[in-house]
Every structure is written in structure tokens, then in C-alpha cells.
Amino acid sequence: MLCYAEPRAMKMLRFRSPSVSSLAQEVQCTVRLLDDSEIACSIQRDTKGQFLLDHVCNHYSLLEKDYFGIRYVDPEKQRHWLDPSKPVVKQMKCQQPYTMCFRVKFYPQEPIKIKEELTRYLLYLQLKRDVYHGRLLCPFTDAAYLGACIVQAELGDYDPEEHPADYISDFKLFPKQSLKLDSKIMEIHQNELRGQCPALAELSLLQRAHTLDTYGVDPHPCKDFTGSTAFLGFTARGFVVFQGNKRIHLLKWADVSKFKFEGKTFYVIGVQREKKLVLTFHTSTPASCKHLWKCAVENQAFYKCAKSSQIKTVSSSSIIFKGSRFRYSGRVAKEVIEASSKIQRDPPLSVITQPTVHSAGLSALKDSVHLSPLKPSVTSEEVEVRENHVQERREDEAVNRMKADEERREIHVDHEDEACAALTISDTEYSPCASVVPTPVEESQGGLNLLFQSPARLLKELHADPEMQLELQAERERELAREAFRQSLCSPSSGRQQMQACLLSAARLVVMATGLLVILLPLLLVLLESDLDISFLHDIRQTPEFEQFHYEYYCPLRRWFLCKLELMTEQLWGD
């Protein structure tokens, strides 16, 4: 049962269970959406993450929900994705009320295949956040085009009488925004994108963004075997590694065999140029390494598998009964695209001026609050003027032109990947300011000062800490001890000890099995020969094999035992 109370600032939700006594155990949650609005929730202690995710999707009237997830931060500032199959309370380690964020978890490989405009709009909001926080790094020309698409979607066509000369200064689009970039954005906005409606401008951004190497990358800061800072990520194409302003590794999903982790060390096992490849990286904490491993397993299953039935439970270690076990439980990319193609409701053509029943979520989203902190206010008259500029024929031509450009870019990228593994992605270094802590973060959590710091600098300060140096030294000593142990196992003197240990283990197994047989067989025999009226015992008694055993072995053995017992009793009484 869902009960709603609707104040102006946020909507309240309460998940009720049949037990009245359990209402005293309600937990308060706040979910921050992509447009920085919030939904306040009151849930039970046994409410699973899937209910929370479904509620946010219902708030949007969102059907293509498999691309999205809910993220939270624990007290140690480690990010996590909320597991839909587990209770929310058991996953949250911080104090109430809980604060979480609704974000894009799996980026669509081809945004043009997204069926509904609502889903494309939410992806547009996520990409705008990625651009602002430096996660979507790109060359100068692409950055200017993305910025112009954002301006076109939110301001409409350039009007000299309405827009001042420095109207781009009202937008904070990039972490580092120069005058040269602003000038290029205005040039593209005033000329190339003129006439595009907001939906088409958003689609233009998606089409350009998904061709970039950093599209869909949720960067995980770490260090490689040389101690240099690197950022790991997972995209629809495969596993990527960024260092400086270059992409130094790209392993396509077909070439990735397995991901493993042990402590703070993360391993990527794959094949490159028909040779086995093992990449090793070191994270700052074991918790961040486990989170990295889980993200790797989920992305590999989502993008690589053809059906969800092919997904298997994976272990973090190759040793039996050791390490963490995890399985992705959602649908895969191919199934999501197939399900999207079967959506029957009409997509909203003009969600602001012509709202329908199905587009209520999107129109409410666009009308309730500002789309983001970056967007200036837009009046209804401006919206009507903007809508009147667009014709269906122009939209169709633009979409067809983008499809053709996309095919050419895919061919170019494939040749580029075959030519070299290292690829320059930008003129500046890849240093996303929000790769350690997701935005937004509560001021009470003390994490705002981390948002605009580079993870490279954070890692540098972390490794400069004396306690961290001692911990790293201890980690090196443990590695040396494990290596010495492996070498000792290979020596001839240790072969006899290993054989003796193996024989001792086998002897223990035989003794344990014999003991179980000695205890269980007499117990089963007593139960079968008793008068207990149990169905499975009765069925066993009716079998020919048991009747033969009863008359040929059990009865003679019982008579012999009773005779011996009588003789012993007579001798005792005679004495």
C-alpha cells in the first residue's frame, strides 16, 4: 500500500507492511534526483532496494528503468550502488536519515535506440553532470559542441535583442571554462544548432557524447604497478584505463576473461593480440577495491551477456571457499533494448505544451523545478516561441543526418582501436573532480571540500601520510612472505611434507566417513524396524529389497543376538 503526502518541496512515500507493530521501525530516506530535486521516503526495515528504485521510476513514469540505479556513500566516503535484492537498512552503514542519489548506472551504447524521450532526457541530465564535473572529458571541438547543445536546449535560438553579448557567462558548463571555449560555444549555438527544439538539441548532445572515449565512465582512481595515478572505467565497449590525457588501455568485453581482487589489489585478466594479459592496480582501501570489482562484474554481465540466464555467480578469488561471491541480478543490454522496442505508449512529442497521461512524469519534472543549477529561468512565452521554430521535416532530416554521421564515426573508431591501444583524448589531463565522492553530499557529512579536489592530489596526500606509508610497508612485507611461501612449496624438501599433509588429510576424511557410517546405519536400521508410522519409512518397508533384508539377515541376526543374551543371563543368574 502506498500513501502519499505532497508538500511543495518534495513528495513523501511510505511502504506499509501487514504488521501494525512494525510501523514503529520506519526509516527515513531522501533520494536526490538528477535535476537536484528530492523525494523523501518512509520505509520499513525489511524494505528491499528494488522498492525504492521502483518508486523513483514511478515518480518519473519511467519504463526504461534498467539503465538507472541508486547510489549512496558510507561514513568512510566510499561509494556504493544500492543492491535491489537486499534490504536497504542492511546496506546503509550511516546514521538516519539516509541520503541517496538517483543516477544513470549503465549508459546506453546507442542513445538513438532509446524508445522514449523521457529516458533520453534523464540521460541528458546525467551527461550534463558528467560534463560539469569533468568525468566526460573530450577535445576542445567536442566540448564546444556539447556546451552549445546544452545552451540550445535550455535557451532556444539566439536572439540578439534578448540575449546579451556575454549570455554564456550565466552557464557553468565545465570545470575549467575559458573565454576561447565560451566564444566557440556561442558560435555553434548561434549558427549550427539554430532551429533545433530542446528535445532535438538534447538528442544531438547524446549522439556526440556517446562517441567519446569517456562516455559512460564512472572513474575509479587507483595506482598502477609503477605507482602512477590512473583512472579505471567500464563502458559499453569494454574496460578502459586513463592516465594523463591518454587512454592507455581498452579491452573489449569479448577479450576480458575475469576480474579478481585481493585486499587492495585489483586484477584484470584478458587476452590481447592472442596473448594472455594480466593488469594489476592498487586502490586506497579494500572497500574501494571491492566496489571496483562489483562494478566490473555488473558491467561485464550487462554489456557482454546476450541473456540474463547466462549470468553466473563469480568469485573474487580462484581458490575454493575463499573470497567474495557476487552475481548481477538484472536484465542485460540486449534484453533492455528488446523490451524498449515493445513499449506501446506514444512518446510525448511536446511534453511542455501538450502534456498527455503518459508524459505526466516528464512534464511535471520539467515544470516543477529548474532542470539543474546551470539553467536560467524560461517563461512560457519563450517556450512557445521555441516550439514554433521547429517542424517535423527538419527534425527527421537532422536525425537521419546524425545516424549517417554516427556510422562514419563508428568505422573511424574501429580503425583507430586496431591501430593503437594508446589514444589522446584531450589537451588536458583526465582529473574528474567528483570521482571520489558522488555529488551532491550533505554538508553535515563534511564531504563538500572533497568535491572540487582532484583524486590524483587526494591519492598523493594519502600516500604521503606516515600511517599510510607504514601500511604500505606492511603490505609489501606480506607480499614478500607470500612469495617466499610459494617458492618453498616448489622446493624438493617441501614435497615430502606436502605429501604427508595430503595423506594425513585423506586419513582424517576416511575416519570421519567411517564414524558417520557407524552412527547413521544403526540409527536408520532402528527407525526402519520400529513401528513409527512415517510415510517415507513405510514406503521403504514395502520395497522387495527391504523385505529380503528383513527376513534373510535382520531376523536371523536378531534371534542369534537374543540367544546369546539369554545364555549370558542364565550364566549370571546361575552364578
Automatic annotation (TrEMBL):
<dbReference type="Pfam" id="PF00373">
    <property type="entry name" value="FERM_M"/>
</dbReference>
<dbReference type="InterPro" id="IPR019749">
    <property type="entry name" value="Band_41_domain"/>
</dbReference>
<dbReference type="InterPro" id="IPR035963">
    <property type="entry name" value="FERM_2"/>
</dbReference>
<dbReference type="Pfam" id="PF09379">
    <property type="entry name" value="FERM_N"/>
</dbReference>
<dbReference type="InterPro" id="IPR018979">
    <property type="entry name" value="FERM_N"/>
</dbReference>
<dbReference type="InterPro" id="IPR019748">
    <property type="entry name" value="FERM_central"/>
</dbReference>
<keyword id="KW-0472">Membrane</keyword>
<dbReference type="InterPro" id="IPR014847">
    <property type="entry name" value="FA"/>
</dbReference>
<feature type="transmembrane region" description="Helical">
    <location>
        <begin position="506"/>
        <end position="528"/>
    </location>
</feature>
<dbReference type="InterPro" id="IPR018980">
    <property type="entry name" value="FERM_PH-like_C"/>
</dbReference>
<protein>
    <recommendedName>
        <fullName>FERM domain-containing protein 3</fullName>
    </recommendedName>
</protein>
<feature type="domain" description="FERM">
    <location>
        <begin position="27"/>
        <end position="307"/>
    </location>
</feature>
<dbReference type="InterPro" id="IPR000299">
    <property type="entry name" value="FERM_domain"/>
</dbReference>
<dbReference type="InterPro" id="IPR000798">
    <property type="entry name" value="Ez/rad/moesin-like"/>
</dbReference>
<dbReference type="GO" id="GO:0005856">
    <property type="term" value="C:cytoskeleton"/>
</dbReference>
<dbReference type="InterPro" id="IPR019747">
    <property type="entry name" value="FERM_CS"/>
</dbReference>
<dbReference type="GO" id="GO:0008092">
    <property type="term" value="F:cytoskeletal protein binding"/>
</dbReference>
<dbReference type="GO" id="GO:0016020">
    <property type="term" value="C:membrane"/>
</dbReference>
<keyword id="KW-1133">Transmembrane helix</keyword>
<dbReference type="Pfam" id="PF09380">
    <property type="entry name" value="FERM_C"/>
</dbReference>
<keyword id="KW-0812">Transmembrane</keyword>
<dbReference type="InterPro" id="IPR014352">
    <property type="entry name" value="FERM/acyl-CoA-bd_prot_sf"/>
</dbReference>
<dbReference type="GO" id="GO:0031032">
    <property type="term" value="P:actomyosin structure organization"/>
</dbReference>
<dbReference type="InterPro" id="IPR029071">
    <property type="entry name" value="Ubiquitin-like_domsf"/>
</dbReference>
<dbReference type="Pfam" id="PF08736">
    <property type="entry name" value="FA"/>
</dbReference>
<dbReference type="InterPro" id="IPR011993">
    <property type="entry name" value="PH-like_dom_sf"/>
</dbReference>
